[in-house]
Give the backbone structure.
Amino acid sequence: NAGVTQTPKFQVLKTGQSMTLQCAQDMNHEYMSWYRQDPGMGLRLIHYSVGAGITDQGEVPNGYNVSRSTTEDFPLRLLSAAPSQTSVYFCASSYLGQPWVSAFFGQGTRLTVV
Amino acid sequence: AQTVTQSQPEMSVQEAETVTLSCTYDTSENNYYLFWYKQPPSRQMILVIRQEAYKQQNATENRFSVNFQKAAKSFSLKISDSQLGDTAMYFCAFMNLLGNQFYFGTGTSLTVIP
């Protein structure tokens, strides 16, 4: 089925460990983004990309890296996990130029940093 | 930057009754898109309804309708004939015309009481 695939669904990390959250879409969307969802704070934009080779920071980028080598994939890297990064992470994608189509979301990753 | 405000953290409604969720936003742009998303316990983000700012007519999708007041920058969601399956977190979201800026409110947790 077409859509946004996020892996893993759950992850527990120790403080200081690194990991990569994977995000892939098969709809040829130009725009991809990562959000974190925390209680009482809604979804906040971490990083986004408007196409392969182009990335930019969102509202809460510190502690996260991204790259976009292909249109399909947009991984999010935590370089040195901290307890403050415990959250639910969502990847989303959409068409640029046709934003009325709205965004497609992955199913989320619940990350716990201990 | 755009901001989206949902001032009702929690709401409840009796089954079959009508409930209205509030959302206000702040933007200097004239054309943009507004959305309501539903997030059930499964965490999946589900698009409920979409409104284009250049359209004066309020959007309607079955039991869901919006009251879009552009001058007041208000975008409320009305759910008619509430059903138990409507129990979820609801997020209001703003997207710019190009589609590369996507901002969310903090959410309203709706409980439908049997």
Summary: Chain B touches chain A through 26 residues (CB under 8 Å).
